[in-house]
């Protein structure tokens, strides 16, 4: 039996991956180039600046670090605008139920998201209070696939990493969970998340009783 659950946000709890992609698309278009759809998967779990660097692979133009900072800030402005429309209806299937079941069973719940917008997103979805600890992405030195963010969450929850289950929709996130020594549950497509211990299409397909004392 495991003792704590640690969730990624975008693509696991919140239906926000599409908003990140739309914001990157808008930025690229304004800069005079197009990004292919694979960028949607490539930026999953990847922090803001690293995501920008992936987007900029699709243009020949070089940007200074100051210009990159401005581009990242611009993209974030578009993203923040898009997430203003979020409501509890944007919780991904099963997310609300899973969080409430864990709460009722007194299983500690953490959030390990690369997003600096995690708190407002959770607030808009109405599930902020369902988390015992939210890692501040701004304090993470090494982003996913490094285990740092999942280890920080486990430490704050006071649970040994080997007794934690991590939930992720991104390959980089699954690697982060595995390197942290946790049980990895992939949410999404099996071929994309082949390294995870188990993969389910959504949180609605996960049977919590297999991992936790409910
Ligand atoms: C992750 C997303 O959760 O957060 C990435 O999967 C995103 O696509 C990253 O780049 C950083 O988000 P933000 O909100 O800090 O720009
Ligand atoms: Mg994600």
Alpha-carbon distance between the two ends: 10 Å
Oligomer: single chain
| Order of neighbouring strands in the sheet with most strands | 3-2-1-4-5-6
How many strand elements?
6
- β-sheet strand percentage: 5-15%
Please state the average pLDDT score.
Answer: 98
Q: What sort of overall outline do the alpha carbons produce when their principal axes are compared?
A: globular
Bound molecules: 6-O-phosphono-beta-D-glucopyranose, magnesium ion
Largest sheet, if any?
6 strands, parallel
Helix content estimate: 25-40%
Radius of gyration: 17 Å
Question: What is the H/E string?
Answer: EHHHHHEHEHEHEE
What is the helix tally?
A: 8
Given the helix and strand composition, which structural class is it? alpha/beta
Low-confidence segments: none
